[in-house]
Write a structure and sequence with these properties.
Chain A is of the alpha/beta class. Chain A is built from 16 helices and 19 strands. In chain B, strand 1 and strand 2 (120-123) form a beta hairpin. Classes of the chains: A alpha/beta, B mainly alpha.
Chain lengths: 544, 137
């Protein structure tokens, strides 16, 4: 029998390992007891579960999907978009073992120190601890993802590369490195499938969708989870502790759905669950005209090395952000081919259309562009490198790269996830997503571009063109759902405390980017992992 | 009028060519530059590829936004260059003026003395030099 035919017949479909239990086969009304129950097997859930491997505590890992992504299960994500246009919710987080790491782009970077600081010019900003508190946990995340040594060190990457980062005078602009995790290490469900299955104390239940987190009458402890499967059977899980690790939108939804005792939803006594929903707005914001063809942008456009791959970006230094009272933003100089490659990897034609729009919108007059480019090249040549020019430069000899911005949005309580009236296949209310951006977010990008343009000119690199004076952020290309169960010491300002425990509930914890009180520009998974390891240490202490 | 004032297009080109502060004479000049080099002061290697026509177009755009600067004497004054009628062809003067212009150009970016020209952020100094070239063509 051919391989293709065997695959069609399902013979080659991955079969769950021994400690993976298909919840559809459980008898209706089944009761499970454990020390720790983790809801969701994505990056956070797997990181926490892996920290309990070989230990005495009994761990139950609940996954709404199976081993592979199934569109029927993904339909549980559907909801209504009422704010800014948003991506397809059915793909926005994945219900399968490994969670959204089954299709993430695997770009990682820690948050910048300034992202943790309360900034007077950014309302609601700041974490309850500084970046140094996460440093040891970032190191564990680095090992978890099998990243090379010094994954974010610009100089270390330069040593193994024939291209260099651009140099800026005055320290206003810096180059930062985003690490790209190899796919073989990034698909966490595949990486950890065997070791999680082999652990005798960890049971993973597939097709197990949590319906409600049930607390005691005084809402001080969670008593059990009500769980259902697509085939109609239901069961309960009782544990000493529970970790909600279902993703930035689903975490909020599950707390809001858990309303049988606390009508407004668990942890929502101060109307904070679902608020402060944030994403990273992205946009092609302009072009960088390099005035010397020897100034390659290759260091910034995705480099593959023996130790891994990286992309570099430009950003304002923390001090420059403070001085100008700006939000964080990073800018990737990208070439057309980079855009195309990334598009094929990710969102297909939708993103491709966006790129075409970026390229065609605000296109300068062809003749003026040529003349300005010539002037720029000549002027920078005259001021810096004239004596080294090897040959007469041809007409319009610049290298033009597109600047793709990944932007921090300011915490916004009106940007939120709520429950609508539509119901999913379990009869549960679907989400309503109202993603909002404020004027501050767009103005900050404009002002950052102005500083970047000046610094590029002063460094003699070339010139920046930022064509849209009425620039407004309005879209994203990433599934970075953050903020909906934000962390704060004060229960009136946050859903979880500094240990990620839901305020007022002794044994319910939240893992994932929903706890981020401020968001930076870094892709969130690296910080999700760091926080998960931090929470694991806390739970191990609680459960001994 | 420019001729009357003594600031010829050739002089502006000389000035722009001298901004680089590079060695005055290079042996490895290409044929085009050697032709320039036959003329007494047009020996700077940067001149080999300088597109004054482009600078003139940009200069015209600048003056469209700031018509009050459409005056050669005024532009020279704003750029701290010698009066158009003065003699400033000695290499020492040119070197000093070029150094001053380079410093101004960079300082413009550092201090925000820039203008947005259809989205491009350009230094006021480079725009005024372009305007000077525009007026001299």
């Amino acid at each position: 029998m051919s391989l293709a035919r065997r695959a069609n017949l399902g013979i080659l479909r991955p079969q769950p390992p021994m400690a993976f239990i298909d919840a559809r086969t459980l008898p209706d009304g089944h009761r499970i007891e454990s020390d720790l129950c983790i809801i969701g097997s994505g990056a956070a859930g797997l990181a926490i579960a892996s920290e309990f491997k070989g230990r005495s505590q009994r761990v139950v890992l609940l996954e709404s999907g199976g081993l592979e992504v199934d569109p029927k299960i993904q339909a549980l994500n559907e909801g209504r978009i009422v704010g800014l246009p948003y991506l397809d919710l059915r793909r926005a987080w994945l219900r399968a073992f490994g969670g959204t790491t089954n299709h993430w782009t695997a770009h990682v970077r820690p948050l910048d120190p300034i992202d943790f600081e309360p900034r007077p010019w950014v309302p609601h900003s700041g974490w309850p601890f500084r970046s140094a508190a996460l440093t040891p946990f970032y190191a564990r995340a680095q090992r978890f993802l099998q990243l090379p040594e010094h994954p974010f060190d610009v100089e270390a990457w330069e040593q193994g590369d024939r291209y260099r980062a651009w140099r800026f005078e005055g320290g206003q602009v810096r180059t930062l490195v985003v690490q790209v995790v190899p796919i073989k290490h990034a698909r966490l469900g595949q990486v950890f499938r065997k070791s999680i299955a082999a652990d005798k104390k960890i049971d993973t239940y597939l097709f197990a969708t949590v319906q409600e987190i049930e607390p005691d009458g005084s809402v001080q402890r969670v008593l059990r989870l009500r769980v259902a499967t697509p085939t109609g059977n239901a069961f309960t899980v009782s544990s000493r502790c529970y970790v909600l690790a279902a993703g930035g939108i689903e975490n909020a939804r599950l707390l809001l759905l858990s309303s049988s005792v606390q009508q407004e939803g668990l942890g929502n006594q101060n109307d904070l669950v679902g608020r402060f929903f944030a994403n990273h707005p992205e946009a092609g914001v302009g072009q960088l005209y390099l005035s010397d063809r020897r100034l390659k942008s290759d260091f910034y456009s995705g480099r593959r090395h023996r130790d891994g791959s990286m992309r570099a970006a430009l950003a304002l230094a923390d001090g420059a952000q403070r001085e100008a009272e700006l939000l964080n933003a990073r800018f990737h100089p990208t070439r057309w081919i980079d855009d195309l490659a990334r598009t094929w990897e990710s969102e297909g034609l939708r993103a491709l259309r966006g790129i075409f729009r970026d390229l065609t919108a605000h296109r300068p007059r062809a003749d003026l562009e040529r003349h300005v480019a010539n002037l720029i090249v000549d002027m920078d040549a005259l001021t810096s490198a004239a004596s080294d020019r090897p040959a007469p430069h041809p007409e319009q000899p610049f290298t033009r790269t597109r600047l793709h911005a990944v932007v921090e949005q300011a915490p916004n309580p009106d940007s939120r996830v709520t429950l609508g009236d539509d119901r999913d296949q379990f009869g549960q209310r679907r989400v309503v997503l109202d993603w909002r951006l404020g004027d501050r977010d767009s103005v900050s990008v404009q002002r950052t571009m102005e500083i970047l343009a000046r610094e590029v000119g002063a460094a003699g690199l070339g010139r920046v063109r930022f064509p849209d004076r009425n620039f407004r952020l309005s879209q994203t290309q990433s599934y970075h759902h953050m903020g909906t169960t934000r962390m704060h010491e004060d229960p009136k300002q946050g859903v979880v405390d500094t240990t990620c425990r839901v305020h007022g509930i002794a044994n319910l914890f939240v893992a994932g980017s929903s706890v981020f009180p401020t968001y930076g520009t870094a892709n969130p998974t690296f910080t999700i992992l760091a926080l998960a390891f931090r929470l694991s240490d806390h739970l191990r202490g609680v459960l001994t | 009028m420019i001729q009357e004032m003594g600031l010829t297009r050739r002089k502006v080109l000389q000035l722009l060519a001298w901004i680089g502060l590079s060695p005055l004479v290079r042996n490895e000049l290409d044929p085009g530059a050697r032709a320039f080099a036959a003329q007494p002061v047009l020996v700077h290697p940067a001149l080999r590829g300088f597109r004054h026509a482009s600078a003139a177009v940009v200069g015209a755009e600048y003056l469209r936004r700031r018509p009050e600067e459409a005056d050669t004497s005024k532009l020279c004054r704003l750029l701290a260059l010698p009066d158009p009628g003065a003699s400033w062809e000695s290499s020492g003067d040119l070197t000093l003026h070029a150094a001053s212009l380079v410093a101004r150009h960079r300082q413009d970016f550092r201090t925000g003395r820039v203008l947005n020209l259809e989205g491009w952020t350009l230094s006021i100094t480079e725009l005024r030099l372009s305007a000077l070239l525009h007026l001299s063509t």
